[in-house]
C-alpha cells in the first residue's frame, strides 16, 4: 500500500489573509444554499463569491487528503495546499462575480497548476497575462523528475499555453474573459506513479476513485450554485462526463458542452486553436470573448 494519500504538504508561508487549514466548513451532510449573491452554509452567511469558492475548495482538498491511494499511485501533489497563496490570488482577482460559463478541466498537470496553483497554469501565461506571481511551497514528498519550483520552473505546459493563449488572442485582456467565464478544475490533486508518470482520475479504478468522485462531484455542484453558472464546458471528455453526471444528479438547470482537450497527446489535435474557436462559434459563445 502506498502512503501517498496521507502525504502532508508544506505550504508557502505567504498566504495572504486566508488560513487554509481553518477553512473546513462543511461535509457531505452540511446544508449549502444560495440566496441572492450570498451562500448559506450551516446557517453561516458568506457574501463574497471569492471567499465562498476558496472555502469550498479548501474543504475539498482536506477531504481528498484523507484518501489512501493504492499503487501504482506513489505521489500526490495538492497545489491547494502548498500553492494556496497563488491560488488565492487567482480566485480573488478573477472570481468576484457570477459567471455565465465555467470551463472545467480534469486535474493539475505537472508543469501547470502543480507549479502555480492556477488551473492550466502555464508559467508565462499566469505571470505575464494574468499578472499573478509569488512564492510557492513544496509537497512534502516529491518525485525527483517532477519537482515543484513554482515560477522558476523552466518547463512549459502545452495544454495551458494553448488554452490561456486562445483567450489571450480572443479577448486581449484577461478581464474580458473573466467578465463572463472562469476556468476551474474538477479535481485539485495530481497523481503520479513511482517514475513520475501522470495518473489521471479517468485512468483510476477501485474504491479510491469512488471516494474522489463523491467529494469532487459535490464540490462541483456547489461551485455551479455559487457562481450561478448557466453553461459548463468540459475541457475533454472526462470533464464533460463528470459535469453531465453532476448536473443531472443535482437537477441543476445547466447546459453541458465540450471542447477538445488542448493536450498535444490527444488524437487529431493539430490546429487546436482553430478547432476550439470553431466550437465556441457553434455554441454561440464566441462573441462573448471577442473584443
From TrEMBL:
| A UniProt-annotated Pfam family | UDG
Q: Where does it reside?
A: Nucleus
Q: Which residues form a coiled coil?
A: none
Domain Uracil-DNA glycosylase-like, chain residue ranges per copy: 93-276
- Signal peptide interval: none
Q: Which domain of life is it from?
A: Eukaryota
UniProt KW keywords? DNA damage, DNA repair, DNA-binding, Hydrolase, Nucleus
Q: Which residue stretches belong to region Disordered? A: 1-32
InterPro entries, per the entry: SMUG1, Uracil-DNA_glycosylase-like, Uracil-DNA_glycosylase-like_sf
Q: Fetch the CDD domains from UniProt.
A: UDG-F3_SMUG1-like
Keyword Glycoprotein found:
no
Where would you say this protein principally sits, based on its record? nucleus
Concerning its family, UniProt says:
Belongs to the uracil-DNA glycosylase (UDG) superfamily. SMUG1 family.
Protein name listed in UniProt: Uracil-DNA glycosylase-like domain-containing protein
Task: Record the organism.
Answer: Xylocopa violacea
Amino acid at each position: 500500500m502506498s502512503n501517498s494519500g496521507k502525504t502532508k504538504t508544506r505550504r508557502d508561508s505567504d498566504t495572504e489573509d486566508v488560513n487554509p487549514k481553518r477553512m473546513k466548513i462543511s461535509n457531505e451532510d452540511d446544508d449549502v444554499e444560495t440566496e441572492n449573491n450570498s451562500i448559506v452554509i450551516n446557517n453561516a452567511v458568506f457574501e463574497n463569491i471569492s471567499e465562498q469558492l476558496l472555502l469550498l475548495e479548501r474543504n475539498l482538498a482536506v477531504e481528498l487528503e484523507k484518501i489512501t491511494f493504492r499503487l501504482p499511485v506513489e505521489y500526490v501533489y495538492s497545489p491547494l495546499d502548498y500553492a494556496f497563496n497563488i491560488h488565492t490570488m487567482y480566485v480573488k482577482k478573477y472570481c468576484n462575480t457570477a459567471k455565465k460559463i465555467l470551463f472545467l478541466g480534469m486535474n493539475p498537470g505537472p508543469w501547470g497548476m502543480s507549479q502555480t496553483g492556477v488551473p492550466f497554469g502555464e508559467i508565462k501565461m499566469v505571470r505575464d497575462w494574468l499578472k499573478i506571481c509569488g512564492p510557492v511551497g513544496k509537497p512534502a514528498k516529491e518525485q525527483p523528475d517532477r519537482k515543484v519550483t513554482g515560477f522558476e520552473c523552466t518547463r512549459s505546459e502545452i495544454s495551458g499555453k494553448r488554452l490561456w493563449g486562445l483567450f489571450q488572442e480572443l479577448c486581449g485582456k484577461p478581464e474580458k474573459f473573466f467578465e463572463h467565464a472562469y476556468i476551474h478544475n474538477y479535481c485539485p490533486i495530481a497523481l503520479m506513479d513511482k517514475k513520475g508518470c501522470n495518473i489521471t482520475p479517468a485512468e483510476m479504478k477501485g474504491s479510491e476513485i469512488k471516494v474522489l468522485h463523491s467529494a469532487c462531484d459535490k464540490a462541483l455542484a456547489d461551485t455551479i450554485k455559487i457562481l450561478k453558472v448557466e453553461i459548463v464546458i468540459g475541457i475533454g471528455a472526462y470533464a464533460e462526463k463528470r459535469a453531465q453526471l453532476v448536473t443531472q444528479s443535482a437537477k441543476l438547470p445547466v447546459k453541458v458542452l465540450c471542447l477538445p482537450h488542448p493536450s498535444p497527446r490527444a488524437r487529431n489535435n493539430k490546429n487546436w486553436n482553430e478547432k476550439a474557436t470553431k466550437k465556441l462559434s457553434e455554441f454561440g459563445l464566441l462573441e462573448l470573448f471577442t473584443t
